[in-house]
Amino acid sequence: MSGPTAAGTALREAPPAGAAVLAVPFTGSRAGRAPLTWGQRAIWHAIGRTAPNDHYFNLGRVLPLADRGAPVDEAGFTGAVAALLARHEALRTRLTLSGAGEPGQHLLASGEIGVTVRDEPDPARAGRAAEELLTALAGRRFDYTGEWPVRIGAVRSGGRITHAVLALCHLASDGHGAEVLVRDLRLLVRRGSAGRPVADTPYDLAHEQHGPAGRRRGAAALARWEADLRRIPPTMFPEPVAEPRTPRFWTGRLVSAALPPAVDALAAAHLVSGSTVLLAASAALVAADRGHPAAAVMPIAGNRAGRDHRDLVSTLSQDALVVLDLPADPDGRAVFTDLLPAAWRAALAGYRAAAYDPVEWDALLARIARERGTEVHPYCCFNDMRLVERPVREGAPPTGEELAALRGRTVLDFPATQELVACRYCLHLTGDDTALTVTLTADTAHLPPDAVHAHLRAIEEVVVASAAGDPPRLADLPGLLAGYRSAAR
Fold this sequence. Notes:
CATH architecture of the largest domain: 2-Layer Sandwich
Distance between the termini: 58 Å
Shape: globular
Largest sheet: 8 strands, mixed
Number of domains: 2
Low-confidence stretches: 1-12
Number of strands: 16
CATH class of the largest domain: Alpha Beta
Structural class: alpha+beta
Number of helices: 14
Oligomer: single chain
């Protein structure tokens, strides 16, 4: 399929107000058909559970092109776009559905994509115009079989392109892949090349995962899942505690300047990762909320370690299962930092078992549910969306006074609501060394808005107090949550 036949709906849809569409042809090196990779199968299942609100999974990035040099002209930008699609096969691959609804993927060798260009006369507003264009492109669901899995936009000011905009279908890329695309597009615009060809592709990975070696690895991972599913509480939030709001799912957001130095200090002191510190804090509070002896949390695993997937644009992320057993504590003396070594070991074990066939995973959950007589699913997710490789903070750890001053700048709000999310507790981490943004999307029947804010405040309290040398006792965590809930009402 090539030429006008492969142009996709991006060219046929009316562009956002004040924008025009440029047709950009591209040519890659090969075509073919393959089953979905395990990561693609996982996100396709999630899309099916969330539709028609599945635009929730879209990824968006804005790339300023005038910040490190002169803005690029139109010809240079469209040439870079064509080279980007030639380089990354995921961007020229579409979903296919058999007559029975079985999904697969079709890699196309060539075609044409529409680039939505918005003119902004005022250079000072170009960045804002790019964010508005991203909202327009990423805010609607993809036509998975009839549209390229990327929508590309640009802001033009003074006749030159100042910003590029990428709205990505999650079937084509995860967050790491989105960062690879931003990097490569910048290089293609500035230098005309993004370096050596990508060593691996989703097409190759799909055939490998569905072959004998892939099936053996998947079976070993699911054996680990099965052992944990037999011993964990059936779910972290078993019974509704309130009438659900309309819309049912609310997202709370905490933006904290105190968390980055506090997390780094704890990670260095206890020889664990910063992500493990935050996973342990959220897990301990989830267990405290409902009195569980263990927390079962499903973090999103990037699945890029140990293989040549660093530059691969694809959806490799899948759910892991981390089971954090709380210590026997009859005297109530155990403190939060006592959990960190066990959390590190539990996280490593969970992440090692995070690549598997989701179809077989569904069958495993159904079998465990029959054997235990109830559904077994944590419905408790953790997603650290920051780059895996982050520089180590240098210098002395922060003092309690410094952390207290930084906490005075914390912002807490509710930025979004939606009607359907296939979970009850979904924690996301974004940010950098200056501030950490923690968002919690929750089912208000299980976590009302005051409970959402209580969990966010308590995560900050647990981590910052521990970094200041006063880790809270595990026995005190239920009271901490209750206090923050009362304050939020």
